[in-house]
Here is the input.
Amino acid sequence: MPRERNLSRVRTRPRGGAVAAAGLAALLALTGCSPDGGKGGTGGDGGGEPAAGGTALHAVASLTVKGRAPKTGYARDRFGTAWADTDGNHCGTRDDILKRDLTAVRFTDGHCKVASGKLAEDPYTGQAVTYERGRSKVDIDHLVALSDAWQKGAQQWPGRKRVALANDPLNLIAADASANRQKGDGDAATWLPPNKAYRCDYVAHQVAVKKKYGLWVTQAEKDAMTGVLKGCPTLKLPSGGAPTEAPERFAAK
Here is the structure.
């Protein structure tokens, strides 16, 4: 089946000595974003102007701020069976994301189970990573970790909504396994990708997921998100993905 690209990825690279202004350099160091927000435009630093509607920066201001709830009761199966086929294409969600994000994909069964492939430029490290089934250096990461979601609203949801979040392509990305495991269940206040060129898109997707599902953020998290997105103020809020409720055949405890 054809590979789809639902996640935008920043592919900017350092511009060398051409960017010499000290103020701009300080901004880039703080946010980890390129001056154009990774979109090839002329975003700048916002200049104190209100964020435009439809941007990730505008959306982050609308997120509800609350304290982190206890992790009590969290377990992976509270979000359903891992990598459920919620879209009904007869392939598990993990393989769907591998097909979407890898290149040179080979299958074990002709069309579904990914046997091998290459992550040409890992979003978290910027390095090429090889995927081989059973000995993988590639994880499928929840951009908003399920534990983080549990502590910020998901424990109050019906099971089918949690299943939807766990399998929503908007919230999933193939990434270097080592970097993903360093992230753990951290939010934007505690972990950002080492690859600074991807930080704007990374945070924008977290904002999109939290807004779509009605998850809240802590004040420290919101501040961190805003700090990153001020470096790419024209970056549009990502959209799409799956419905926010899985089909009736799925359930979670």
